[in-house]
Specification:
8 helices; elongated; 254 residues; Fumarate Reductase Iron-sulfur Protein, Chain B, domain 2; two-stranded antiparallel ribbon
Length: 254
């Protein structure tokens, strides 16, 4: 008989009727949490909703909370959930009543925190994208021009390399400030801001525009230095450090 794993999974059909369903899944070699969710969808309930795309920890679509820690489902192995070292001092996130959760034997699956649930594990990412657009995370360039953003030295690239790794998964929105302040720009957005502020290819006008936005009260000044975002980021972007960089280098100047 094949080995099996028990799951306790958050379900919400969008009418505030929250419940948790139990599933038992036969394990296969190399099975990820995302694979397990597909099994539930294929063999238990075809209406079960979750997001995914690349299955390679690049797109960021499958971010969710696993045993109370936000992670990428495609990157998380079922067999290592209970033994893997978890980030310390994470805020408690409550989606529903899990008082009967068998923490030793059941893997708990819930949505990303601090976002409204649309259905099951699918959350409304529009506030995340709205704030992302506000920091202008792109280059502006006239057609056929020869602006300085056409090239960059290896040393200049190194100063922003870590920030470029952000895949916009939304996991860093576990930040306690996001939990209590719906207008907070957010760690990912501020990390992207730091990336464009520091990019040697960005002209002064664009840099000043981004700085002006992130120094507003709902952005860098709102960060309370919990650094939860640093501890949960699956790509090592360290958004909290990026926010500190903006604070240290631009707030006093302004």
């Amino acid at each position: 008989m094949s080995e099996k794993q028990k799951f306790l999974v958050y379900r919400n059909v969008g009418n505030e009727s929250v419940r948790y369903e139990r599933y038992e899944i036969p394990l296969s070699k190399g099975m990820s949490i995302l694979d397990a969710l597909f099994y539930i969808q294929d063999y238990y309930d075809s209406t079960f909703a979750f997001r995914y795309a690349c299955r390679g920890a690049i797109c960021g679509s499958c971010g969710m909370t696993i045993d109370k820690v936000p992670m990428l489902a495609c990157r998380t192995q079922v067999t290592t959930v209970k033994t893997a070292k978890k980030p310390i001092n994470l805020p408690e996130v409550v989606f529903g009543d899990t008082s009967d959760w068998d923490q030793d034997n059941e893997i708990l699956i819930e949505p990303l925190p601090n976002m409204n649930v649309i259905k099951d594990l699918v959350v409304d990412m529009e506030p995340f994208w709205k704030f992302y657009r506000e920091v202008e995370p792109y280059f502006t360039k006239d057609w056929n021009d020869t602006a300085s953003e056409s090239s960059q030295s290896p040393n200049d690239m190194k100063t922003i390399e870590r920030l470029v790794y952000c895949i916009l998964c939304g996991i860093c929105w576990m930040c306690p400030v996001n939990a209590k302040n719906s207008e907070y720009l957010g760690p990912a957005q501020l990390a992207k801001s730091d990336r464009f502020i520091r990019d040697s290819r960005v002209n002064k006008e664009k840099q000043e525009s981004v700085i002006s936005r992130v120094l507003q009260n709902d952005a860098v000044p709102a960060c309370e230095k919990f650094f939860v975002c640093n501890r949960v980021c699956p790509k090592g972007v360290m958004p909290g450090t990026a926010i500190k960089d903006i604070r240290d280098n631009w707030i006093e100047e302004k």
